[in-house]
């Protein structure tokens, strides 16, 4: 898609949701009809800067455009839309299936045991299920089971959701192995730079807060790095760095018993008071208040 047009492409968490306050380091799932039906079965061009999507199309079909490629949607089929990829979907009316939208943090957690799972999720692709050797009933059952767990509030819900999501990633990996050419052109240089920057953040965000460090390691100027992040994620390089720190802090606050001072240290802050101000400014509540709210919601 032409570079000059990217600035006008909406960036969403879920299609049509403009709210910048959406915080989700997990995943969301819904039937295709729930969002596409009210939009006359057309999902207009947009991107998900911090989330990847995988769709199961059980019936119906249509076309999907990812970057410059327009491809028919196979039925049954799997569509993989990595974070930052501009895409548009025109479904046939009545199309049935599911959409799974996963935060990058959730994806990395699920793929931690096998780096190939992450590579498969980073490859934009349209996969038919017929003739691949993959069990179609098993794939459909996995998506349906994930949807049941997503809408229920049963004990072990989060673990069950992650288990089914990992099964989906395995399906994507096996389809990736059997398809040398998924039919999608390689992303542009801005996308490539954003992906490499995010990988570098994962390795250094606790200790390196200077964009000079990241730009030098990527062999680009700070201005070039910022331009790529704005074009593909709709945010500055600093925004992405600070968001990654906040996500890690939230994880410690929700899933560990570490004190706020300990969380500050674990996320690279020498001064707990500065960490408190940093977190409060970006989240809207103090670390202690965030922890209380999260524990109340889980209760």
UniProtKB/TrEMBL annotation:
**The UniProt record lists the keyword Transcription regulation:** yes
Protein keywords: DNA-binding, Transcription, Transcription regulation
Start and end residues of each HTH araC/xylS-type domain: 195-293
Family annotation (SMART domains): HTH_ARAC
Pfam families documented for this protein: HTH_18
PROSITE patterns for this protein: HTH_ARAC_FAMILY_2 (PS01124)
Protein's organism: Allorhizobium borbori
Q: Identify the taxonomic lineage of the organism of origin.
A: Bacteria, Pseudomonadati, Pseudomonadota, Alphaproteobacteria, Hyphomicrobiales
* Cited PANTHER family: ARAC-FAMILY TRANSCRIPTIONAL REGULATOR, TRANSCRIPTIONAL REGULATORY PROTEIN
Q: Which InterPro entries match?
A: Cupin_HpaA-like_N, Homeodomain-like_sf, HTH-like, HTH_AraC, RmlC-like_jellyroll, Tscrpt_reg_AraC-type_HTH
Has UniProt tagged this entry with the keyword NAD?
A: no
Q: Under the GO molecular function aspect, what terms does this record hold? A: DNA-binding transcription factor activity; sequence-specific DNA binding
Protein name (database record): AraC family transcriptional activator of pobA
Q: Which residues form the signal peptide?
A: none
Superkingdom assignment: Bacteria
């Amino acid at each position: 898609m032409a570079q000059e047009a990217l600035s006008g492409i909406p960036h969403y968490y879920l299609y049509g949701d403009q709210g910048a306050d959406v915080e989700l380091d997990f995943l969301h799932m819904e039937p295709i009809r729930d969002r596409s039906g009210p939009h006359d079965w057309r999902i207009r061009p947009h991107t998900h800067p911090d989330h990847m999507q995988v769709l199961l199309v059980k019936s119906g079909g249509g076309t999907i455009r990812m970057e410059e490629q327009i491809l028919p949607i196979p039925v049954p089929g799997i569509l993989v839309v990595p974070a930052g990829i501009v895409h548009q979907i025109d479904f046939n009316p009545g199309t049935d299936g599911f959409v799974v939208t996963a935060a990058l943090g959730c994806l990395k957690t699920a793929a931690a045991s096998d780096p190939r799972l992450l590579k498969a999720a980073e490859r934009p692709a349209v996969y038919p299920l017929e003739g691949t050797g993959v069990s179609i009933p098993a794939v459909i059952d996995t998506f349906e089971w994930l949807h049941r767990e997503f809408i229920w509030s049963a004990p072990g819900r989060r673990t069950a959701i992650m288990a089914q999501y990992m099964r989906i990633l395995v399906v994507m990996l096996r389809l990736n192995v059997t398809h040398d050419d998924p039919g999608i052109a390689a992303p542009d240089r801005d996308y490539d730079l954003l992906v490499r920057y995010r990988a570098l953040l994962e390795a250094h965000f606790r200790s390196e807060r200077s964009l000079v460090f990241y730009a030098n390691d990527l062999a680009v100027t700070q201005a070039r790095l910022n331009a790529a992040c704005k074009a593909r994620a709709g945010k500055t390089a600093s925004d992405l760095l600070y968001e990654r720190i906040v996500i890690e802090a939230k994880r410690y606050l929700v899933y560990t018993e570490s004190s706020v001072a300990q969380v500050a240290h674990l996320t690279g802050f020498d001064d707990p008071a500065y960490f408190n101000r940093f977190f409060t400014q970006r989240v809207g509540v103090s670390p202690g208040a965030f922890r209380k709210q999260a524990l109340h919601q889980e209760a």
